[in-house]
């Protein structure tokens, strides 16, 4: 967390005390060590002999060598520099070069609580490394039960904040995506309102529903931040009603982010089979075209975009979210500043 010096760092790299998706589950294969940068942290991901995923700092507690260059030993990993072995809890299990030294048996490697849901690996980034995480609550469409989903994963050369702006801007669907098979109908002018919910707020058109990209919802459920929206589907897209997207974005660094877009429908039994067949054979390619339009727009955005905006009524949701994020970043930065003298004294 050395890079999180102030409020601006927290805003650009992601708030703490939050769950963030890191990558699709299939990216972390058995017997391998995977290195990732997420939310300003350099991470090592690996699976033990039972298949349980572990997320740890990619830094050996001995000399700070990259553990991702080390050896996978089943239920341990070994640093390739001097052979120091660590378990999934971050405890030093063995120091082959100096058996019985004080480092053995000590929890010396930062380890992030991790879970897998809906084909993705999530980790808890706590402000206090020793505190228990808030239980992870994923939105209903990716929690299973009567819902089915496909995960679309992207990495874009743009701030994650630009993707949040895009998701809370339903009006762009009628313009940027006007040639999409689902977003070509409806009016190109609208009035919007914000409706508060128990977990966030809904930003919606007041004069159109179920026609285009007509609303989006910001959720913060148990520390996981996400956006949910509906896209109406024609009858030719099979059973299941509207097409729901659950989106999460995670900063890689200040200028790159990972995007997770779960495409969901409320289907089961034969309807689920029909939906999955249609999606893979007809619909998925069209959805990638829409995402590509968003990527091009986000990556081309100038660095000073926020400083030179002239916003209007359609932008009230993104303004509200920006203020919420900045206020929380300011609060967390102040709390961090208060903790630093205590930590220094403890050393």
Automatic annotation (TrEMBL):
List keywords of the entry alphabetically: 2Fe-2S, Dioxygenase, Iron, Iron-sulfur, Metal-binding, Oxidoreductase
* One Pfam family cited in the UniProt record for this chain: VanA_C
Q: Which residues form the Rieske domain?
A: 19-123
Q: Does the keyword Oxidoreductase apply?
A: yes
Q: Does the keyword Disulfide bond apply?
A: no
Source species, domain of life: Bacteria
Gene Ontology molecular function: any one:
metal ion binding
Output the PROSITE patterns linked to this UniProt entry. Answer: RIESKE (PS51296)
UniProt-listed PANTHER family: 3-KETOSTEROID-9-ALPHA-MONOOXYGENASE, OXYGENASE COMPONENT, IRON-SULFUR DOMAIN CONTAINING PROTEIN
Protein name (record) = Phenylpropionate dioxygenase, large terminal subunit
**Classification lineage:** Bacteria, Bacillati, Actinomycetota, Actinomycetes, Pseudonocardiales
């Amino acid at each position: 967390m050395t890079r999180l010096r102030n409020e601006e760092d927290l805003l650009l790299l992601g708030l703490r005390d939050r769950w963030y998706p890191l990558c699709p589950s299939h990216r972390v294969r058995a017997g391998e060590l995977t290195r990732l940068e997420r939310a300003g942290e350099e991470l090592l991901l690996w699976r033990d002999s039972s298949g349980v995923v572990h997320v740890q700092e990619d830094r050996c507690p001995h000399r700070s060598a990259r553990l991702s260059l080390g050896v996978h030993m089943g239920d341990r990993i070994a640093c390739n520099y001097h052979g120091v072995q660590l378990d999934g809890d971050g405890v030093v299990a063995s120091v082959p070069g100096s058996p019985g030294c004080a480092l053995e048996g000590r929890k010396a490697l930062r380890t992030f609580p991790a879970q897998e849901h809906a084909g993705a690996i999530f980790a808890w980034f706590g402000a206090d490394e020793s505190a228990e995480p808030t239980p992870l609550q994923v939105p209903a469409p990716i929690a299973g039960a009567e819902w089915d989903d496909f995960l679309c994963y992207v990495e874009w050369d743009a701030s994650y904040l630009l993707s949040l702006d895009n998701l809370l801007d339903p009006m762009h669907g009628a313009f940027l995506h006007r040639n999409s098979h689902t977003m070509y109908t409806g009016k190109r002018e609208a009035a919007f309102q914000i409706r508060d919910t128990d977990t966030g707020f809904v930003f919606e058109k007041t004069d159109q529903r179920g026609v285009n990209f007509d609303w989006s919802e910001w959720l913060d459920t148990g520390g996981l931040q996400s956006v949910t929206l509906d896209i109406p589907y024609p009858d030719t897209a099979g059973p299941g009603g509207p097409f729901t997207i659950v989106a999460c974005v995670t900063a890689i660094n200040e200028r790159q982010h990972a995007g997770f877009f779960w495409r969901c429908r409320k289907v089961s039994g034969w309807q689920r089979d029909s939906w999955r067949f249609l999606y893979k054979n007809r619909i998925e390619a069209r959805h990638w075209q829409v995402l590509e339009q968003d990527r091009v727009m986000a990556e081309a955005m100038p660095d000073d975009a926020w400083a030179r905006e002239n916003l209007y009524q359609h932008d009230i949701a993104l303004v509200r979210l920006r203020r919420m994020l900045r206020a929380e970043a300011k609060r967390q930065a102040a709390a961090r500043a208060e903790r630093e003298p205590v930590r220094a004294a403890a050393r």
